[in-house]
Amino acid sequence: MSFLSGLSAFPITPSNRDGRVDITALRSLVARLSAARVDSIGLLGSTGAYMYLTREERRRALEAALDESAGRTPVITGVGALRTDEAVKLAQDAKAIGASAGLLAAVSYTPLTDDEVFEHFAVVANESSLPIVIYDNPGTTHFRFTQALVGRLAKVPGIIAVKNPAGAREETLHHLADLRAIVPTGFSLGSSGDWNSTEMLIGGADTWYSVLGGLFPIVCLKIVRAIQQGNVAKARQLDAELAPIWELFKQFSSLRVVYALADLLHIARTEPPRPILPLPASARTLVEETLARLPADVTH
Question: Is 234 labeled as catalytic in the residue annotation?
């Protein structure tokens, strides 16, 4: 599917301490992304705190995002849940509301086997008829998709893409090349971990699933478009300008940093869902100082 290429921008989901989504603030974030003409919006990913929201709040968030995007920008939405039946319902909701695809992680409490994950994904895809993106996020789920499992799932009707995790650059590039050899033509291979994604796109990834893109879409789009036009030097130059942000992401986690950035820039005045706490004062000061040193056009 054509929208599973380029920049998929992942915004935070502003909410109060009771888990009620701030629809006005969310619509503002989505409008910012649509105006920038990102290739897709990744609603309710890990940056969007999907696991901290009820089914009702996820529905409200998706309805607001789709209303704001008004068909201009495809929306991929998180449908992960501990239970298969719950994930099916979330995917059915997403399909009915109008999402272009669902982002499904192997969420678990008891560690899952490859066969259990395969069955989980196959059932959700089959019973929802929603196109599914495999969300390989071992940092949160503690489950890592093997190449063999991705290859099996890529043959399931309705499973159309994979969002790969960040890793060491060379290891991730080899993983990308090995996956390309086993998945069907048209199956989209994507990259997360913003600090590695420029090199992953240069190395042949289709999609950058970007945390920073959910806040600063313009500079992230410039990187993507430069690569698409064959201007690798320009892409690497822009990526190098963002290196201080990448270091903050690695040190404090991208989730905590983007909440601080959104607040400092008055883009969204909200805090992460508890028990996650806002950055302490010393770290917030470091984020503020880093922000002040960035080129002026980065924060658009």
Answer: no
Tell me, rounded to whole angstroms, the distance of Cα 265 from its chain centroid: 21
Average pLDDT of span 118-125: 98
Q: Residue 177: its pLDDT value, please?
A: 92
**pLDDT surpassing 70 at residue 1:** no
User: CA nearest 101: which of 1, 200, 215?
Assistant: 1
Q: Find out if CATH 3.40.50.670 is the number for domain 6-229.
A: no
135 in active site: yes
DSSP state of 155: T
Report d(CA 151, CA 256) in Å as an integer: 33
List the beta bridge partners of residue 132.
Answer: 102, 159
**Cross-strand bridge partners of residue 43:** 77
Average pLDDT, the chain: 96
Query: Which residues contact residue 256 at a Cβ distance below 8 angstroms, ignoring those fewer than 6 apart?
Result: 272, 276, 278, 279, 283
Above 80 in pLDDT, residue 55? yes
Residue from 135, 209, 222, 259 carrying the catalytic annotation: 135
For residue 96, the model assigns a pLDDT of 98
Q: Are 228 and 198 in contact (CB under 8 A)?
A: no
- What average pLDDT does this structure show over 126-137? 98
Q: Output phi, psi for 160, to 5 deg.
A: -120, -10
Q: Give me the residue spans of the domains in the chain.
A: 6-229
**From 50, 163, 222, 259, the catalytic residue:** 163
**Parallel/antiparallel/unpaired status of strands 188-191 and 207-210:** parallel
Which run of H or of E encompasses 222? helix 217-228
Question: Model confidence over 16-46: pLDDT tens digits?
Answer: 999 999 999 999 999 999 999 999 999 999 9
CA 263 to CA 44: how far, in whole Å?
19
DSSP annotation of 296? G
Does residue 218 contact residue 17 with C-beta atoms inside 8 Å? no
